[in-house]
Specification:
Helix content is 71%, strand content 0%. It is built from 11 helices and no strands. Helix 4 runs parallel beside helix 7 and helix 4 packs antiparallel against helix 9.
């Protein structure tokens, strides 16, 4: 009887050892023929720590303005915001509709958009051309960069009286002021991007015996485009800021002129309408530039993408 019990005990220990050996160390199950073996146990694997900003939030650019609009509406409903200081959003909308139906708002909007477009086009062309000349040529940098830095240090508001004396109070001086506000950030960012291109890429292009056009296409343009779009966004914003200023100086039309006239009579609703339109223009134009940048620079892998 004892021999039978001893034999059964030995068989049990042998089966346990075979099972543990088949399972492998730390509970790793042996793979069947044709299956891959995962050398790292599931309970030992370390989870990778995510350091990026996370997944993109749909329509994230509009969350902040919508939240601000909601707080503004809540303050107006509860009476926390004095309508004599800041009218309610629906009051602003109704005032805008009245100005549009009366034929006052439409022509002024068209004039302002034309001024901003002309000044932006001139500033974009000048800033891009000067930055390319200064960034790709030592002679260009010596002739242009110092002058642009001096112009950058001069306040635009301080230059307005001088340009009025030079160009008069017509449309020319307004467009020139807008162009100056646009070309400076475009020049600064594009020239910085050009000078920041890695010299090893230039050496590689020379080793491959690329032509001048191939060098510009494959090395210069891809390396400078991120900074160029940054300058473009700043230039668009600068055009709207300069537009607000010049339309309140000896102007007879435009959105800024309308705001100034309405403020003279204490019509704060109309003033807020003008500010809201400027804000919508700025937000929309920046969004358009961002979309173009995302499409053109789709090859880049960045935190934003």
């Amino acid at each position: 009887m004892s021999d039978v019990v001893l034999d059964a005990h030995l068989k049990s220990r042998s089966a346990t050892a075979e099972t543990a050996e088949a399972a492998g160390p730390a509970g790793v199950t042996a793979a069947k023929p044709g299956e891959s073996v995962d050398a790292t146990p599931a309970d030992v694997r370390r989870r990778v720590r995510r350091l990026g900003p996370g997944k993109q939030i749909p329509l994230s650019r509009g969350i902040g303005p919508l939240l601000l609009l909601g707080l503004w509406s809540l303050g107006s409903v509860t009476g926390r915001v004095d309508p004599r200081i800041l009218p309610a959003p629906w009051t602003v909308v109704s005032t805008a509709v009245q100005l549009w139906q009366s034929g006052t708002l439409g022509p002024d909007l068209a004039v302002s958009l034309q001024r901003a477009a002309e000044g932006f086009a001139i500033g974009l062309t000048a800033g891009t051309a000067l930055a390319l000349f200064a960034g790709l040529s030592r002679v260009g940098a010596a002739l242009i960069d110092g002058n642009v830095q001096v112009n950058r240090a001069l306040p635009i508001l301080g230059m307005i009286p001088l340009f009025i004396l030079w160009l008069g109070i017509g449309e020319t001086f307004k467009i020139v002021i807008i162009a100056i506000a646009v070309y400076i950030p475009i020049y600064i960012n594009l020239s910085a991007s050009l000078s920041g291109i890695d010299g090893r890429f230039v050496e590689l292009a020379e080793t491959l015996e690329l032509s001048r056009w191939q060098f510009l296409r494959h090395v210069v343009f891809p390396g400078a485009l991120p900074g160029y779009f940054t300058g473009l966004r700043l230039g668009v914003t600068g055009s709207w800021l300069a537009l607000v200023v010049v339309e309140q100086i000896n102007a007879t039309s435009g959105l800024g002129y309308l705001m100034y006239q309405q403020a003279t009579y204490g019509l704060i609703n109309s003033v807020v309408v003008g500010l809201a339109i400027y804000g919508i223009w700025g937000f929309t134009s920046d969004l358009v530039v961002r979309l173009i940048e995302r499409r053109v620079l789709s090859w880049r892998r960045t935190l934003a993408s």
